[in-house]
Amino acid sequence: MSLGEQLLGNRSLLQVAQSLDRVMTTFAKAVYTRQRQMVVDAAITAAAFWLSYLSRFDGVVPAAEREQFAITVTVIVGVYLASNLIWSRYATVWRFFNLADAAELLVPVCFATLVTLSWRLFAPFSLTRGAIPTGVLLIHPVLTYSGWCGARLLRRLLHQRVHGIQPDQTSAIELGSERKRVILVGAGEAGLYLLREIRNSSDYEIVGFLDDEPALYGRSIGGLRVLGPIAELEAIVDRHRISEVILCLPSAPQAVIQRIAQRCARIPVATSSVPALWEIMSGSVMIGHLRPVSMDDLLGRDKVSHRQHIEELLQVYGGRRILVTGAGGSIGSELVRQLKNYGPSELILLDKDENNLYETSCEVREDFSRVTAVVANVRDREVMARIFSLSSPEIVFHAAAYKHVPLMEGYPAEAILNNVVGTRNLAELSIESGVRDFVMISTDKAVNPTSIMGASKRVAEMIVLGLAGGGSATRCSCVRFGNVLGSRASVVPLFQRQIRQRRTITITHPDVSRYFMTIPEAVQLIIRAGSFEDRGAIMMLDMGDPVKIVDLARNLVELSGLQPDRDVKIEFTGLRPGEKLNEELLATGERGVRSPRHAKIFIVEASARPWADLEASVRSLTEAATRRDDNMIRECLRAMEIGYHDPASSAVAS
After folding, report:
1. Domain ranges for the chain
2. What pTM value is reported for the model?
3. CA atoms of 291 and 217, how far apart (whole Å)
4. Of the candidates 361, 534, 364, which has an alpha carbon nearest to the alpha carbon of residue 464?
């Protein structure tokens, strides 16, 4: 068969599959309402009644019995449907039909059988000249039950087929009574799968579901009732003595998760959440792996994921030697953890902190053996040159930096030598060694900086961009971050410690706000940046709107099950040296354009600076730092026209 015929054959099969999907979807919707479900059951019951006659009379039904069937079929169907209504079986959602529902369906069938047999044996009158054969009344419930179960199972299979869900083989058993009383928020597939995962557990007694779909109220899913909408959370928790709420909303926006978690914290009641939908579907975790509502929920927006580009990233990083500086830090260590999944030939982990470096290298070696740990300081160019010569890295991620704003105000020389000189050493050595990609991690504090740390990172950005325009084969770029939730330089670990100790949370100013991102978001942005072919670019993540630090603190207190201003006080201490009231994302003369390859990434088009002028300014700045002349360092930074303002004047202006 030719390639064209194969393609036409595949296309025909695809069209057939698509047509079948449309038929399945139409059929699935046709039996969604209770009234239509009753019509389906009525048709099955009538068909089963006729098949019972055929079975009883070996396929040839006498004329008298055919007349008998025509007269009594309506009564028989009515008895079976009435039995279903009496036992509330139309409260069950067919698309979630399981073994527990099948067992419960036996009750109305048995009840209807008893009614029809009693009528046959004891009724003083008959609708026909002869009584219905007992064999017919015994065969009929078996066929009816099989048909009912088959229709419901078909509805479920169609739902799974249409939505691409893998059928779950897990059966359910009855719950004991000595368990933690739980409600599941979200009566969808995630809620049903979680029910099956934890129903055998001795820890949980699942009371029911909450869901905002009105058609589900009062109905049964997996043998449990949908108790009401999420708006009635507090009343239902109180009425049913709930001790834990599990959020089964893996694809819900973070803002929704955050609001529900805050309501649970005010009750208070413990809150857990199923993993994200992509984690479940990828098989990296089971849906039963519950987690507490995490600090990621403080973002107030959906997290950004780049996992749809895995194949591309495997091609970019597979078989490459990759050097990561600052590999012991919160960003560097997560960067190493993620990079090992893309099949590099070697990971070179560099840090001056031996303890953190050792811990990271041991962790990575558990499932990736090609790791080299190097204790060195990026400020020492001679040592860095020897490392480049021995390891010959093809890709360099430069995460090593001093990041603490107030601390660096007291040590300007250290900030310059580490952040500026160290970056220049690595960027120049990367170009000299023929490194394919050099990516430097920067910060939004580099934009119109009011701090030494921010100014040092701005100069480092300019060095990288300046070297990128020199015509070398190395692609040099920068990644500009907001505040990273959970990193060592973030306020979140400090707030967490203060909350645990029931101490007052200290915030510098009631109006101070920051842009936030999670560590995985930050690292995925770095990895994506290394795959872009843009030279001399600064890349940023679309971080949404800035978050007020006081709002973040209050949310964190509530997510911990406490109440702000009652259990934990909040106190304002005033802006610290070098600290801004609000951060910015673009410096003067810069313009951000969305990347055509990823809608959540901005590429900053920076204004060019003549390399000769920049090199002279950096040389003067380096000399001032080497002499530990703090005043001269600040004068050099102001002279470089990077938007740097004196910390003192910045604080007064704020």
Report:
1. 7-163, 180-293, 320-653
2. 0.58
3. 27
4. 534
By residue count, the chain amounts to 654
Q: What is the CATH number of domain 180-293?
A: 3.40.50.720
> Once rounded to an integer, what is the mean pLDDT over residues 317-339?
93
Asked which of 8-12, 199-203, 371-375, 421-425 is least confident by mean pLDDT, the reply is 8-12
The torsion region of residue 565 among left (phi > 0), alpha (psi -120 to 50) and beta comes to: left
Q: Directed axis angle between helix 310-317 and helix 519-531, to 10°? A: 60
Helix H or strand E segment including 595: strand 591-595
Q: State the Cα–Cα distance between residues 222 and 99, nearest whole angstrom.
A: 8
Fold classified for 320-653: Rossmann fold (3.40.50)
Instruction: Give the pairing type, strands 224-228 and 204-210.
Output: parallel
> How far lies 438's CA from each of 428, 514, 532, in Å?
10, 27, 11
Say if CB 350 and CB 324 are below 8 A apart. Answer: yes
Return the pLDDT at 282. Answer: 38
Instruction: Tell me which DSSP letter residue 276 carries.
Output: P
DSSP letter (8 states) at residue 92: B
Strands (E), 387-508: 395-398, 437-443, 475-481, 483-485, 505-507
User: Please, what is the Cα angle at 593 between 589 and 598, to 5 degrees?
Assistant: 150
